[in-house]
Specification:
Helices cover 40% and strands 16% of the residues.
C-alpha cells in the first residue's frame, strides 16, 4: 500500500506539484444500471442488491444506481436503495442521476428523506435537469394537464433544495381535529442537503452547481466547449469543468467532485470475460473520436485491461488528477458474475494501485 502512495506522489511531483497539492484517491465507488428480464423482474433487482452487498464487503465507499424509465433497468432507485439500506450498514448509497423532469420535487424530497433516515444518513442523491427523455411521447402520461407549462430547468432544483433543507412547504403548521401537521417535508433529515450531487456535462452547469453549494458528479460524457483545440480534448474539457465548479463553490478546492468513467479491470477474469470486455469497449470506441450530435457531446474511451495498466492511464488523465473520489461505471449489459469479478479487481488491485484503502 505504501508503494502505491509513493508511486502516485512521485508522478505528481514530477509534474511540479508538491506533496500537499497531491490528490490521493480517498473514496472508491461504483455505478450500475440494474438490468432485469421483463418476464422476471425480481431476479434482476435481487442481483443488484447482491452487488451492493458485495461492494460493502469489499470495502467500497459508495454504490450508485442510475435511472431507466420505461426501460428494463431500475426505474425507482430510491425504492431499491431503501431495500439496500436494510442489507448494508456502512456503504453510501447514491443515484447518478435522478432526472428531475420526471419527478415532483415535494414528493421526491419526502422519498429521499425517508431513505436517508432508514439508512442512517448514507443517502447521496444525484440529480440532473432537462425535459424527460422522449418527452413528446410520454408527456400525456406524465403531465397530461400541465405538460406545456412544466419548468424543467434550474428552478425545479432550487425548489427541491429548499424542501430538503426544511423550508416551508405549506403555510399551515399545527393541529386540526385529532391530526398534527408540519409546514415542512417530513421526515426531516438535517444532513441530507449537504449530500446532494449534480450531474453536470457542461461548463455552465458545473459552475451553477458550485454556486449552489452542491457536490459535482462528472461522468464519461461531457459537452465539447472551449474552442476547436481544447474543446475536442475530453480530459481538458472535463478538467475545465472541475475547476470552474470549485472556483464557484463556497468550499473552493475542498468541494466534492466524483468522476465516473467506465473502468473494467481484467485481473482474475477468464479468457471469455476478457474477450467480451474488449469487444464491448471496441464497439463503443468510434463515438469517442469526435463530438457527437447537435449537442456536441464527447465520450471518454472505456478503460479495459490489467489494474496496473489502468492505474497508469488514470494517473495521466488530466481530470482524474484533480479528483479524490470516483464512481466507476459498470458496463450495462454484463452478467452478475462479470460484475463480481470487476468489483473484486477494483477493490483488491486497482484501488490500492491508486492509493485507495478499503473501508473497515
Amino acid at each position: 500500500m505504501k508503494h502505491a502512495h509513493k508511486r502516485f506522489s512521485q508522478r505528481q511531483m514530477a509534474q511540479g506539484q508538491t506533496w500537499e497539492e497531491t490528490r490521493m484517491l480517498t473514496r472508491l465507488g461504483f455505478l450500475t444500471i440494474g438490468l432485469f428480464d421483463p418476464d422476471d423482474p425480481r431476479a434482476g433487482h435481487e442481483s443488484t442488491l447482491r452487488i451492493i452487498e458485495l461492494g460493502e464487503q469489499l470495502g467500497f465507499d459508495g454504490a450508485w444506481l442510475r435511472h431507466r424509465h420505461l426501460q428494463f433497468g431500475i426505474s425507482s432507485p430510491v425504492a431499491v436503495l431503501a431495500a439496500a439500506s436494510q442489507r448494508t450498514s456502512r456503504i453510501e448509497l447514491g443515484t447518478a442521476v435522478t432526472p428531475l423532469g420526471w419527478e415532483n420535487p415535494l414528493r421526491l424530497a419526502e422519498d429521499w428523506a425517508t431513505v436517508d433516515v432508514l439508512s442512517g444518513g448514507r443517502l447521496n442523491p444525484g440529480l440532473s435537469v432537462g425535459p424527460p427523455m422522449r418527452y413528446d411521447e410520454v408527456r400525456d402520461a406524465l403531465y397530461p394537464d400541465t405538460g406545456d407549462v412544466e419548468e424543467f430547468g434550474y428552478e425545479r432544483v432550487d425548489r427541491l433544495l429548499r424542501l430538503v433543507r426544511g423550508e416551508p412547504a405549506s403555510p399551515f403548521r399545527g393541529r386540526e381535529g385529532i391530526e398534527d401537521f408540519s409546514d415542512r417535508v417530513e421526515p426531516h433529515s438535517p444532513g441530507l442537503a449537504s449530500r446532494i450531487w449534480y450531474g453536470a456535462a457542461s461548463l455552465g452547469s458545473a459552475r451553477w452547481a458550485g454556486e449552489r453549494g452542491l457536490n459535482l458528479l462528472t461522468s464519461s460524457v461531457v459537452k465539447a466547449e472551449g474552442g476547436a483545440e481544447r474543446g475536442e480534448d475530453f480530459e481538458q474539457v472535463q478538467l475545465s469543468q472541475v475547476r470552474a465548479f470549485r472556483a464557484a463553490h463556497p468550499l473552493g478546492d475542498r468541494a466534492r467532485v466524483s468522476q465516473g468513467l467506465v473502468v473494467i479491470p481484467t485481473d482474475g477474469a477468464s479468457a471469455d470475460q476478457r474477450a467480451r470486455y474488449t469487444a464491448y469497449a471496441e464497439a463503443r470506441l468510434p463515438r469517442t473520436r469526435e463530438p457527437q450530435g447537435p449537442g456536441r457531446m464527447m465520450f471518454a474511451p472505456d478503460l479495459v485491461g490489467p489494474a496496473d495498466e489502468i492505474a497508469e492511464r488514470l494517473e495521466s488523465h488530466a481530470a482524474f488528477r484533480e479528483v479524490d473520489e470516483v464512481a466507476f461505471a459498470l458496463p450495462f449489459t454484463f452478467e452478475e458474475d462479470d460484475y463480481v469479478q470487476i468489483l473484486t479487481a477494483m477493490a483488491t488491485r486497482l484501488g490500492p494501485a491508486l492509493g485507495w484503502r478499503p473501508a473497515d
